[in-house]
Amino acid sequence: MAREIERRFLVRDVRILDGRRGEHIIQGYLAKEVGSMSTRVRIRGERAYLTLKSPKLGFSRDEFEYPIPVDDAHQMIVRHCAGRVVRKTRYLVDHAHHVFEVDVFQGHHAGLVVAEVELPHEETPLSLPHWVGDEITHDSRYGNFTLAEQAALLHAAPNGTHAAPTPVLVASRGLPAAH
Questions:
Q1: Is 142 a residue of the active site?
Q2: How many structural domains are present in the chain?
Q3: Where is the active site (predicted)?
C-alpha cells in the first residue's frame, strides 16, 4: 500500500506547456460509494492500471495500484464504467525540487487545466510556480471522479436531454477561471 499525499491547483498560464510532450490518459471509474474507496481503471500510453483510492484525510489517502493488461482495461472502460470516463493529456513540469503533473482535459471538460504535486509529507514546504492559480485540493468539483460523472451525465442524460452538471469554472482560451 502506498500513501498518496497531493495538492492540486488550477493552472493560470498554459504557456508553460509550450514545446513539451504529454502522455494521453483515459481513465474510467468502476465504482465509488460515499465514504468508501473509489475503483479506477486507467490507460496511460501502452500501460494500464487498476487503482483503489480511499477518501482523503487532509491531503492524504491510501492508494493501491496494480498493472493490468491494456485489453482488459479497454473492456472495463467500455463495459463497466457507465460513461464515467475522463480523457486528458498529462505533462510533467519540474519546479523547485518537485514534479508537477499538469493535466489538460479533453471532451466535455476541454479548457480545464489542473496541476497536482505529490509530496512526501503533508507538512512538506511547497514553493508554487508563477503559472499556478487557486488551490483546489479540497474542492470536489475538480476531482476526477466528479468530472467523470459529469461526462457520463452529459453523454447519456435520460430522455435525450443534457443533464446539468456541477459547474466547473473554465475561462476562455483554455485558462481556468479564478473563483
A1: no
A2: 1
A3: 29 (proton acceptor)
